[in-house]
Structure formats: C-alpha cells, structure tokens
Specification:
The structure is a single chain. By secondary structure, the chain is an alpha/beta fold. Helix content is about 30%, strand content about 25%. It is built from 10 helices and 16 strands. The protein has helices at about 40-50, 115-135, 150-160, 175-180, 195-205, 220-225, 250-255, 265-270, 270-290, 305-310, and strands spanning about 5, 15-20, 30-40, 60, 65-70, 85, 95-100, 105, 140-145, 165-170, 185-190, 210-215, 230-235, 260, 295-300, 320-324. Strand 13 (about 230-235), helix 7 (about 250-255) and strand 14 (about 260) form a beta-alpha-beta unit. About 45% of the residues are buried.
Length: about 325
C-alpha cells in the first residue's frame, strides 16, 4: 500500500505520522496521481499546529508534481501519462500517490522538471497574484518585500526586478542578505539589527513606498505601516511570526489613509480560467529566465517531521521539496 503523512491531532512536528493509506480508483472528476516531488510551504506548519484549524484526521500539504496514472468519469483536462502539478485542492500532498480533483491539475511544460514544478507553483502563483493583481507593480516604483530570502520572496523579488521596480527586501541574517541581493533586491535590510521603517524612509527620501508585502505578521505589522506613503497598501499574506495582534482601525487613517488587504491564493485562482492564467504567467517567467527557482533542500517524504523542524527553525532558504 502507498504511504502518506497524516495528522490525527495538532501540535509540533512530532504529530506528523508516516502511515499506509488506501487510495482506491478515481471517481467522477478525479485523477490518480503518482507523486515525483512534493512541495513544502510554511502554511503546512499552520495546518499541523492548529493555527489554521482543519478537520481531523487529515492529510497535509497542498502542492506536488507527478504523473497521472488513471482518471475517473468525466475528466477531460488531463489524461493518463500526463506530467502534472497542482497547488490547491484538498490537503494531502505529502503522499506517495493520491486522488486529486482533476480541475486543480496543470500540465507541466516541457523543459521544467518535477522538482522545480513542485517547488514553484504555490509560491510562484502567490508571487504572481501579489505583484501583478493585488497591487500591479509598475516600472520605476519602489516596493518593500519582507522575508526576501524565503520561498515566495526569492521568486517575487526576481520578478519585481524584471518588471523594472526597485526592490527593498528584509531578511534576518547577513547570509540571507547576500542571497536576497543575488535574487533581485536592490537594497537589503537586516531586520534583526536595523529599524526597517527608518531605513525605508531613508532609501525613499522620506516618501515611503506605495506597497508593502508582509508574510511575517505580528513582528513586522505596525512597523510595516510606517514604511508606507500616504494612500499606500499593506498586503498581509502570512503569519510566520504569529497572527497580527488586533488593532484600532483609526491607525490606518492616522498614518496616511492607508489601505490594508489580507488576500489568499484560493480566491485569486477560484476559477479554472484564473488558475490557468496565473500558472501560465509563472511558467512564462520561468521559461524566459526572468525568474530562476533553486531547490536548495531535498528531503525524503518520510522525514516530514525534520522538514517542519527546519522550516520553523529558519534553517531553510528558498524552496524545499520532498521526494517519495
């Protein structure tokens, strides 16, 4: 029988269990996919810890690449033998093989390998909706991107640079600063020893930036507001340091009639047309060379506990994948 990582309770990495599972034949609208590579994302730790509650017991993980082995009745978007990738649908990507709603599957273009596909889709599509749709960044603008050496950050900063933006990134160490500079950041702030808002104001001649992209959450939120120019947009899309503490909305008016949004990839790719358009945009920047994805960490799927320890301990840089 195939094996998968599952949780029956929330908690630390130790709750991740490597169990045999029964997969079965695909039903209507489903495809059976044998995984070649599984993507790892910080949101996986939220589901495991209970920060984002999920019904238990549950699979975990939302992103993988592999080969379609069979399809159920009514499936027309993929066929057996197709190389496919997905970043969405029901949780359960930490598995050797599984049934997946066919509508979330996307064909992998020639020239893109399985590990890259598994590593890039959720992060790449997140970067796409953030910088092309939530706030469409234009050439000549200066933007702030937190966690610039993270999985989404490395993709987004390269893409922003290709768009002609000036990119200010924050990181937690000198090692990560070097990586961020090599991936599109014009200016890097080491947030563990520098005041981000003061440095942003210095770099922008006191004006501030039109948009801040913040996946850190609690530790950076209020300081991020101080980085914005009047009428600027705060894009809060993650909580790696914890959930943002409730605050008085009048702070937004006091700091310059600011805008605040908390977007999700699920909303931006809710229709098949939006999903395909978003993914195709990602594939296009990969094939053009404007964005390069480096899979820096590869673990066996059975070692998911160690993967989560390393992820939460900030011991990973860029993309992480697991292989069955």
């Amino acid at each position: 029988m195939p094996k998968a990582v599952r949780i029956t309770e929330t908690g630390g990495p130790e709750v991740l269990r490597w169990d045999e599972v029964e997969v079965g034949a695909p039903g209507a609208g489903q495809a059976l996919v044998r995984h070649a590579a599984v993507g790892v994302n910080f949101i996986d730790t939220y589901h495991r810890s209970g920060l984002y509650p999920v019904p238990l017991p549950s699979g975990i993980g939302s992103e993988a690449a592999g080969v379609v082995e069979a399809v159920g009745p009514g499936v027309t978007v993929v066929r057996p033998g197709d190389r496919v990738v997905y970043a969405g649908g029901p949780r359960g990507a930490y598995a050797e093989s599984r049934l997946v709603p066919a509508e979330v599957l996307l064909p992998i273009p020639a020239g893109i390998d399985d590990r890259t596909a598994a590593a890039v889709m959720l992060k790449g599509m997140t970067a796409q909706y953030l910088i092309r749709r939530t706030y469409p960044v234009k050439a000549g603008e200066t933007v702030l991107f937190h966690a610039a050496a993270g999985g989404v950050g490395l993709i987004a900063c390269q893409w922003l640079k290709a768009l002609g933006a000036t990119v200010i990134g924050t990181v937690g160490s000198d090692e990560k600063a070097a990586i961020a500079r090599a991936h599109g950041c014009d200016h890097v702030i080491v947030s563990t020893r520098e005041d981000t808002a003061a440095r942003v104001k210095e770099l922008t001649g006191g004006a501030g930036v039109p948009v801040v992209y913040d996946s850190v959450g609690k530790d950076t939120f209020l300081n991020s507001l101080d980085c914005l120019r009047p009428l600027g947009l705060m894009v809060s899309f993650g909580n790696s340091s914890g959930k943002v503490t409730p605050f008085d909305l009048t702070i937004l008016s006091q700091k310059g009639s600011l805008f605040l949004t908390r977007p999700t990839l699920a909303t931006y790719t809710a229709t098949r047309a939006d999903l395909e358009a978003t993914a195709n945009d990602v594939f296009d920047v990969l094939r053009s060379g404007a964005v390069k994805v480096e899979v820096r960490h590869v673990y066996p799927l059975a070692d998911a506990q160690q993967v989560h320890r390393d992820l939460e301990g900030r011991r990973t840089v860029g993309s992480v994948v697991m292989t069955p």
